[in-house]
Specification:
By secondary structure, this protein is mainly α. The chain has 28 helices and two strands. Helix 14 (about 330-355) packs across helix 24 (about 555-575). It is globular.
Length: about 650
């Protein structure tokens, strides 16, 4: 079948083909295995960091830019000779977007190392010195963690010779954890289905993260060997520059005296005494995505980061203390609490401006026969979404209560999970940043917001275990809903597939984490996840049980101040067209993801503002190939660095990307 006929086939135009699904699942397995292996055992670049991590983007980029191009060339050569080979038909843009969607949702499996570490940490790190067994062991839910001490020890230290991996020790608790996570993802899909029309069709949010893959797969009007973006000279110039910078530094792996290009290597620098450290680096991967972000948001992020740093300097210089001494008493934590208040405001504001749409959803769920509300283009009907969200929320609530968590903490945990998930999804859709983090997770805010002076010890122990995984991920599916528009297919055809992809990624992730731990010893990876992270959190549980405190009202007032400031900025932005400070910048400026990105954000903002003033949006849009070239060139360089580490520096790699 000729390519032009293939592109006119309505069954193929949807992109939901068998080969696209199979390739997508293969990339999910590759992403899960590769990111775990290189991050924690090769000690190479962090391939799993970011909302679209390198382990997802790079195979997708190679598929579009090299594998599919090769298929096109071979297909053309064979057709000229009168040979028709269906297996070599090149992938269409719609199919490649389907592959990206599957890989994007399957990215969930990369977090299983944290879950396994949280489950195994109490057994392995308990000692007479820390007195964990006397303090909180009696309150740990036995069905949620492995009970065999030797099995856990072998995971961290490596399996003795001749022994087999004790899968039977892990399977029972992991079964219940899988049910918890699947319930969370089904609830996320239901909530995303409810919010999709408001965010995509009515508010028309940016969804800049989707623009990058959509731009990469775009083909010209006539069938061509190369996608659009690869036919521009500026793309390849930018590609060569960033790829060459990484390769230049690779030479230093073999010759330490070789001068490096330090601007793409990360390091912390203190500008002044008492002033917070500056993460001195321009990350080309982040730069490529940031180009698609709104200029006002970029400006607000680095501007409020600077104000936050000055505020921290004043706190440190004057030794300011607010409330009682706690883990939230440092200068950056106090500024972070302000951002948390802003985060809560923006999440509630998102619900407020969607109130009419939400009322329509309720009416349609109550009476599906009404004609003025259309839910045909959603992941599921409004009635199914509302009932599904209610049932999964109830399941999650009882699941948490079975961990011996008190109902007040369970309710607060779930409410904050939903609020933070909505805020996270809305802010990522509006900003488009590939590195984005929320102010708190639900466990932290449940303890912070309610205090633990009169908390049952089981609540604190259960919340520590629940810290292993969140329960709602609205951001993933709202972005998928936007990406599906490039596939020209119905969203309901993908609903079950997305849940299956998530489950598959989690199962593969858990299998590979346990396999690598028992093969090489998780503790030998020398990473924060296996050595210090869970130890720190469980140590906090012991402290909270032995020294319980109530609600810290002064710090809650800091959260309230951030809430009011964000509300005022939102009002100013709605009332005055000249107001450039965006409330998102204030909300996330002091979060970890922003602190390590601020120089890259400033660089992109400066370039965009300069070209906007020189030639307007038309000239700025011509820079798209340049920034995509920066992004793809750096990704290719990181891949080559990984191959060099694999060949010459196994398990002693080099951190190029973070």
């Amino acid at each position: 079948m000729p390519l032009d006929v293939l592109e006119q086939d309505s069954t193929v135009q949807t992109g939901l083909t068998v080969r696209a699904v199979l390739i997508g699942f293969a990339l999910v397995a590759l992403n899960t295995i590769w990111s775990t292996f290189t991050d924690f055992y090769m000690r190479s670049s962090y391939m799993g960091s970011g909302l679209i991590p390198m382990s997802v983007f790079l195979p997708f980029f190679l598929m579009v830019g090299f594998v599919n191009v090769l298929w096109r060339v071979m297909d053309r050569v064979l057709r000229r000779r009168g040979i028709d080979v269906p297996a070599l038909y090149p992938l269409l843009p719609q199919e490649m977007m389907c592959i990206f969607i599957i890989a994007f949702v399957g990215n969930a499996g990369r977090g299983m190392n944290w879950l396994v570490s949280v489950m195994g940490c109490p057994r392995y790190f308990a000692s007479p010195e820390n007195k964990w067994e006397d303090t909180f062991f009696p309150y740990l839910a036995k069905w949620a963690i492995p009970l065999d001490r030797n099995a856990v020890k072998w995971f961290y230290d490596g399996l003795p010779e001749g022994m087999k991996i004790p899968w039977n020790v892990w399977l029972p608790p992991l079964f219940w954890w899988l049910g918890f996570m699947v319930a969370g993802v089904v609830g996320s899909l239901c909530l995303s289905s409810i919010l999709r029309r408001q965010w995509v069709d009515r508010e028309r949010l940016n969804f800049a993260l989707v623009d990058v893959p959509a731009e990469i797969v775009k083909n010209p009007d006539k069938p061509s060997v190369l996608p659009n973006i690869y036919t521009t000279r500026m793309f390849w110039i930018a590609f060569g520059v960033t790829f060459g910078m990484v390769m230049w530094n690779v030479v230093g792996y073999f010759w330490p005296q070789f001068p490096e290009i330090s601007i793409i290597n990360y390091r912390w620098r203190r500008i002044l005494p008492y002033f917070p450290y500056l993460y001195q680096r321009i990350n080309p991967y982040l730069v490529g995505f940031c180009f698609f972000c709104d200029v006002d948001i970029l400006f607000s992020m680095w501007f409020f980061w600077l104000l936050g740093a000055i505020q921290c300097y004043i706190y440190n210089r004057l030794s300011v203390d607010i409330g009682r001494a706690s883990e939230y008493s440092s200068s950056w934590q106090l500024v972070r609490l302000q951002g948390c208040g802003g985060y809560i405001f923006l999440a509630l504001w998102a619900l407020w401006i969607a109130r009419r749409h939400l009322w329509d959803v309720i009416r349609k769920a109550w009476n599906p026969k009404i004609k003025d509300v259309d839910d045909s283009d959603e992941f599921m009907s409004h009635r199914t979404a509302v009932i599904g969200l209610a049932l999964t929320t109830l399941y999650v609530a009882f699941w948490l209560h079975q961990l011996d968590i008190e109902w007040r903490f369970v309710i607060f945990y779930i409410i904050t999970s939903v609020v933070f998930a909505i805020g996270f999804g809305k802010l990522v859709a509006e900003s488009g940043l590939v590195y984005f983090s929320g102010p708190f997770n639900s466990r932290e805010f449940a303890e912070f917001g309610l205090g633990y002076e009169n908390a049952h010890p089981g609540s604190l122990a259960g919340l520590a275990i629940a810290h292993g995984w969140g329960i709602f991920g609205v951001m993933w599916f709202t972005h998928v809903a936007k990406a599906i528009d490039h596939m020209k297919t119905k969203k309901r055809k993908l609903s079950f597939l997305l849940i299956l992809v998530f489950t598959f990624s989690v199962v593969v992730g858990l299998w590979f984490v346990l396999y690598m731990g028992y093969t090489y010893g998780a503790y030998n990876s020398e990473t924060w996840v296996y050595r210090r992270g869970p130890v720190y959190f469980y140590g906090k549980v012991k402290t909270k049980m032995t020294s319980p405190v109530g609600v810290d009202l002064p710090k809650m007032m800091v959260v309230g101040a951030g809430f009011l400031i964000t509300g005022l900025m939102t009002l100013m932005r709605y009332q005055f067209t000249w107001w450039r400070l965006h409330p998102i910048g204030f909300t996330v400026a002091t979060m970890w993801a922003t602190r390590i990105s601020v120089m890259s954000i400033f660089f992109v903002w400066f370039v965009k503002v300069t070209f906007l003033r020189l030639g307007g949006s038309r000239v700025t849009n011509r820079l798209r190939p340049v920034f995509l070239g920066i992004l793809c060139g750096f990704a290719a360089g990181v891949f080559m660095s990984f191959l060099v580490d694999w060949a010459f520096f196994p398990f002693e790699g080099h951190r190029v990307h973070y």
